[in-house]
Structure formats: C-alpha cells, structure tokens
Amino acid sequence: APAARAAGGHDAVTARSGEEAITALGRRRFDLIVCDWKMPGLSGAPFYEHLAAIDPVSAERIVFMSGDVMNDALQEFIARHNKVCLPKPFPIAEFQALVSARISGEAAAST
What we know:
Elements (H helix, E strand, L loop, with lengths): L2 E3 L5 E3 L4 H10 L5 E4 L7 H11 L1 H4 L2 E5 L5 H10 L3 E3 L4 H18 L2
Parallel strand pairs: 3-4, 4-5
Antiparallel strand pairs: 1-2
C-alpha cells in the first residue's frame, strides 16, 4: 500500500481493495480510515463488518464516502452503525475539515 503526504501534513496510505486495506491494517494502526462504499472485492459494509470483528478500535475510526448516498442500504448501514458518509464529489476543504476534526477528536479522547 503506497504512502504519501496528504494535505494538512497527514500521512496517507492507499489500498486498491478492501482486502489490501485489511492487510495494511494488520501491519499498523491508523488514526482514521476513509473507506469507499463500493470497492472491488471486499466493499464498504463487508469491510466494516470484517474489521469490527478483528479490530473494533480501528472500526470505530472509519469514515465512508460514496457517490450513491441515496442508496437505502447505505443509509440504513450508516444510521445503524452511527457512521459518517461524505457524498462524492466533495470539496477538498470539507474532507480536510473532517479529517482534522476526527484526528483531533481522537487525540483528545486518548488523553
């Protein structure tokens, strides 16, 4: 999984599939996981369920994004699990604000 410096100074690691993301999550802990609802292979809901079973702490750090936010299954899932879903396309400033808020909230919760 390639790493890069993302806007705001955060390190970003990308995965091309849910399976690749699970492998990366087995190697290290991330402050935030941004997951597309529709991915090749292990997609949004199954990815979350798998992660929640093996690493509930990381599962709490997931934020979803989707171009299909009117999807009933997505809406029900987001409500049931109390998750955030950014509608694509989204302004980069909105994404950066969400990342900053989530990471600073995580830091405040761990102190």
